[in-house]
Amino acid sequence: MASPLARPGLLWTIAVVLTIVSAAWQRVSGPTFPVRGQVTLGSETIRYRVERTHAGDGDQPGRIDVADRSVTGEVRWRRYPSDDAWQTIVMIRDVRALVAALPNQPHAGKIEYQVRLARGGETAVAPDRVAITRFKGDISLVIFAPHLGAMFLALLFGTRAGLAALAGENVRRLTWWAVACLALGGFVLGPAVQKQAFDEWWVGVPYGWDLTDNKTLVAGLAWAVAAWQVWRGRGRAAVVTAAIVMLAVFAIPHSTWGSQIDWRAKP
To answer: Structural domain tally of the chain?
Structure first.
């Protein structure tokens, strides 16, 4: 009786679904995804979206829609991680919203902040815990788009190669495609993105502990071993292992343990 996995169409469907789920998870997880929530002042429910990343040379704008003109706001902030005293920015009313801007920081600099709203004797904070935002340089779409595409193609071909290995199919061509896409996306275009964002080509081992770079390195090593074994004609177990490693890498939220400036170490 043939294995249910011995169906190329089914295997491609599984690989595509896993890739889409991983892409969606990367989109909504991680320390740079905006914090959303709501607070109540009087009879008004105020919804907010607090940003946790900012690109470019300008200050980071912030806006909370509040129709009630009796509501005022301020932003308390300081550099992170640091022992700085907290500073306050008074929010300005802009028709139906309160607006403010956090001062721009050097690439990889972070700020922790929280919005405080008031109406009469009532107060509310947004979000409940301070948010941490990271500043970075502008990233060219010409570099970022192919980087992102190559990384998810590497996941697609890698997952499909792992399924092929389990189903007893030939894994050679799928392995080469996975390795080629990972090499391009992770080790050619990835450092170019890192350079534009944080003015560093590579901050993983042996130069640092940036988790984005290091998890790419782990995936690269796993697929290098798999490619070597496939070239020798006996790589099924290594391909399955590399596929699992790749899925695990994409399960780690993007930018976790990302590049940052430790202001406590600055004079």
So the answer is: 2
